[in-house]
Amino acid sequence: MLVQIVSLGMIVTSALIIWKGLIVVTGSESPVVVVLTGSMEPGFKRGDILFLHMSKDPIRTGEIVGREIPIVHRVIKVHEHQESAEVDILTKGDNNLEDDRFLYAHGQLWLQQHHIMGRAVGFLQYVGWVTIFKVCLFFLNTPIDLEIKQWLPFIVHSDRCTGLTGHI
């Protein structure tokens, strides 16, 4: 029994070290995200995993960026302030009819650079379904799962994750 507990502890510790290492290497608070809805179809489907990297380069229209809650959508407008070098960013899911302003904080019309967690630099198809099934079927209470669960009303029907009620 003690050997099993130590082994489990080593696995969890290794996973945390790898996660923290990815954060340092990519410069992103969330270097790996799962596409939870069909909002980015046809390019990215529900269950795909995207890899994010944060760089100092200016964000440009057409890039796919990750932000809080984890939402990964395309930049559709960038407004650069010449006097302050600040940038306003507007995002939209490729499969959504409207931009993402309804997802921003109340009264917020644009995202700023500090809202962006990274740019998509690669992806794996279907691997994220493990996370979706785990959250939808088991409702494990890790901090990541709790963050995702707050968005479940937008993501799934009451029939345990088999369909979409809307796009994020």
Automatic annotation (TrEMBL):
It is found in: Endoplasmic reticulum membrane. GO terms for cellular component: signal peptidase complex. It is an enzyme of class 3 (hydrolase). CDD domains: S26_SPase_I (cd06530). Residues 23-120 form the Peptidase S24/S26A/S26B/S26C domain. It catalyses: Cleavage of hydrophobic, N-terminal signal or leader sequences from secreted and periplasmic proteins. It comes from the Eukaryota. InterPro entries: Peptidase_S24_S26A/B/C, Peptidase_S26, Peptidase_S26B. GO terms for molecular function: serine-type endopeptidase activity; signal peptidase activity. It is a single-pass type II membrane protein. Its main location: endoplasmic reticulum. Keywords: Hydrolase, Membrane, Protease, Signal-anchor, Transmembrane, Transmembrane helix. Its EC number is 3.4.21.89. NCBIfam families: sigpep_I_arch. Catalytic component of the signal peptidase complex (SPC) which catalyzes the cleavage of N-terminal signal sequences from nascent proteins as they are translocated into the lumen of the endoplasmic reticulum. Specifically cleaves N-terminal signal peptides that contain a hydrophobic alpha-helix (h-region) shorter than 18-20 amino acids. PANTHER family: SIGNAL PEPTIDASE COMPLEX CATALYTIC SUBUNIT SEC11. Belongs to the peptidase S26B family. This is Signal peptidase complex catalytic subunit SEC11. It comes from Zizania palustris. The lineage of its organism: Eukaryota, Viridiplantae, Streptophyta, Embryophyta, Tracheophyta.
